[in-house]
Write a structure and sequence with these properties.
Blueprint: E1 6-11, H1 15-27, E2 33-39, H2 50-54, H3 64-68, E3 74-84, E4 89-94, E5 100-105, E6 108-111, E7 115-117, H4 125-128, E8 129-130, H5 135-147, E9 153-157, H6 161-173, E10 178-182, H7 193-206, E11 209-211, E12 216-219, E13 223-226, E14 231-233, E15 236-239, E16 243-245, E17 262-263, E18 276-278, E19 283-284, H8 297-316, E20 329-333, E21 339-343, H9 358-376
Parallel strand pairs: 1-2, 1-6, 2-3, 6-18, 8-15, 9-10, 9-15, 10-11, 17-19
Antiparallel strand pairs: 3-4, 4-5, 7-16, 12-13, 13-14, 20-21
Helix pairs in contact: 1-8, 1-9
Length: about 400
């Protein structure tokens, strides 16, 4: 009698989801499991480089099917519309939204749908703002920037990593434009004094105007308005001030945080549903000192490894991983020829050193290249494909 395979479904193929799929498929025996990766696009998108796409740079094409070739994992190009954690099913539509694509059943689910631009709360953002939160948004911004004549005014709203990188990339690529950055607090106020000095110096060199302590409360077709009544002219507004997780998890019976992230334990398993794991921006996981891991590629890939190894351990009777999740640095690109590498504590607080310049830019490039490489090669060592302890059974609920 043929034994049913254990069905593992991964939702989302960003840095975290794609890493989980490849790592699981390379560590579990194909006779025992079906690994399916569901994603709305057929390609892996390097989200940390989308500000480069916005300025017209061509990125390397990375086919998800090519990345999974030889692993036994299957790619399903479709959009997720709902998850039923009681029935253990995922509802899908066609990737283009044209029609229903049926249901996909699972025994183990890895939720990695990530985050997107948060357009809520500020009038005019949905109607007038551009973004670099996804490839379609970055391409739309690229086309708009190409239309701008010299002297055109670009305002980037948001002083986090995405806003800083987008403003500097646009200013370097289009020196004929007037680029400004509007930040809620001080410029780079999470950096060490050395990091802040380098950032300010680079923005001065690139001619980026910084509006500090500027709470943007409305976005218009040709300006942004701040809480103190100031008007900042803008032919193009780029919104980077906040990201929101996909709302699907909050509509399920899963335990989620106030932000809609799935609450997970140290193995990235849902605290309410033991057959569900969550990784990347979609998960609320604690760092080394109990503070939540931030939404980032630096968090997503280690979370993916932890989740994949935990699934393997539970299915094969192995030892659960106990890898501490923490940080080493924040790598911030400032165009193609400059960057700042802010060293941080394990819980992401800035240390004094923050080297910058051309060498830092080369290092940042290596980090980005390395992140994409690790997604395509999630096991840096040869691994034996392990057999399930009880092939065909549902995932164990105990630890």
């Amino acid at each position: 009698m043929e034994t049913m395979k254990h069905r593992i479904v991964i939702l989302g193929a960003g840095y975290a989801g794609a890493s989980v799929a490849g790592r699981l498929a390379r560590r579990l025996h194909a006779d025992d499991v079906d690994v399916t990766l569901v994603n709305a696009e057929p390609d892996f998108v390097e989200r940390v480089r989308l500000h480069q796409v916005a300025t017209g740079q061509e990125l390397r094409h990375r086919s998800l099917r090519d990345m999974l070739a030889g692993t036994g994992a299957t790619l399903r190009v479709a959009r997720v519309t709902a998850v039923d954690v009681d029935r253990r099913t995922v509802a899908l539509t066609e990737a283009d939204g044209a029609g229903d694509a049926g249901e996909l059943g699972y025994d183990t689910l890895v939720y990695a749908l990530g985050s997107s631009l948060d357009r809520r709360g500020v009038p005019g953002v949905a109607e007038h703002a551009y973004d670099v939160a996804g490839r379609p948004g970055a391409v739309r911004l690229r086309e708009r920037l190409r239309e701008l004549a010299p002297g055109g005014r670009v305002v980037v709203v948001g002083g986090g990593l995405t806003g800083v990188e987008a403003a500097s990339e646009i200013a370097e690529a289009r020196g004929d434009l007037e680029v400004a950055l509007a930040v809620r607090g001080g410029l780079g106020d999470w950096l060490s004094p050395a990091g802040q000095r380098h950032l300010r110096g680079t923005f001065g060199r690139l001619g980026v105007t910084v509006h500090e302590h500027a709470q943007v409360e409305q976005v218009g077709a040709a300006e942004v308005l701040t809480g103190d009544g100031a008007t900042i002219p803008a032919d193009v507004t780029v919104w980077t001030a906040g990201f929101a997780v996909h709302p699907i998890a909050a509509a399920t019976a899963l335990e989620v945080s106030g932000s809609g992230q799935i609450v997970v334990d140290g193995t990235m398993r849902s605290v309410s549903h033991p057959d569900v794991y969550a990784v990347g921006d979609a998960a609320l996981a604690d760092g080394p000192l109990g503070t939540p891991l931030r939404m980032s590629c630096a968090s997503g890939i280690p979370m993916a490894w932890q989740a994949a190894d935990s699934v393997v351990a539970r299915l094969t009777g192995g030892k659960l991983p106990n890898m501490p999740l923490g940080y080493v640095h924040q790598c911030i690109s400032l165009g193609r020829r400059d960057a700042v590498i802010q060293l941080v504590t394990a819980d992401d607080r800035a240390k004094a050193p923050a080297p910058g310049g051309r060498l830092a830019a080369r290092y940042k490039e290596l980090v980005c290249t390395g992140a994409a490489f690790m997604v395509a090669h999630p096991l840096p060592y040869p691994a034996r494909r392990r057999r399930l302890a009880l092939a065909g059974t549902a995932v164990p609920t105990g630890r």
